Amino acid sequence: MSLSPQSVSITVDTPEGFHDLPLHLPADVLDAALWELAERIWPGGTEFQRETTAIVYSDLTTALTADDVLHTAVALYETEDGAASTAHLLVRAQAVEPQAPEVVAASFQETLSFDEHRNVARVDLPCGPAVLSLHATETEGGAVLPALEFAQVELYVPAPVPGWLIVLALTTPCFADLPRYTGILRQIGESLAVRPAGQEDEPPKTPAAGDVRAVFG
Question: Could you read off the pLDDT of 52-73 as tens digits, one per residue?
């Protein structure tokens, strides 16, 4: 029997400042959930701001649900100078050879290290070994809109469910806040719990001590 990302179930804890987008909800309750999200994002905003946000995230959640994304969230922070700092979190399940987590992690660490534009390091999470990757990406610009650069931090976590790799990706256009978001992704990764779909939740594990800045500075 072929497996799909619905074969695994994940839970993560996102810190204050992150707003989880409602994926995989029935259509009859999705609109209400998106409006509640828009009200949380714009508590002091206008009806236009909330309505526009709900519409944008409606299209986004539809696309991500169709793409089998397991979890997504948007981060909204204010910098010291009053500017906005944003990031997007995506969590996916990727099929891999059903090998031991140590073997999968070592394989991805070696493969990613061939990319000279990446910083790659092995990290240990409560759920097992993982690979942390940091790199910049660029979207293609047209005649009107310029190309946009983003920094992306990824955690590759071999799942205890054989044959699956969980990929957590945090993307931000705010390069100055990259150390902050790198630490946040490590924090989210420490909260990650993976199990076969339908299995009851286990008690949360205590996050491991350590700071990702010890890896990337």
Answer: 878 887 877 777 776 778 888 8
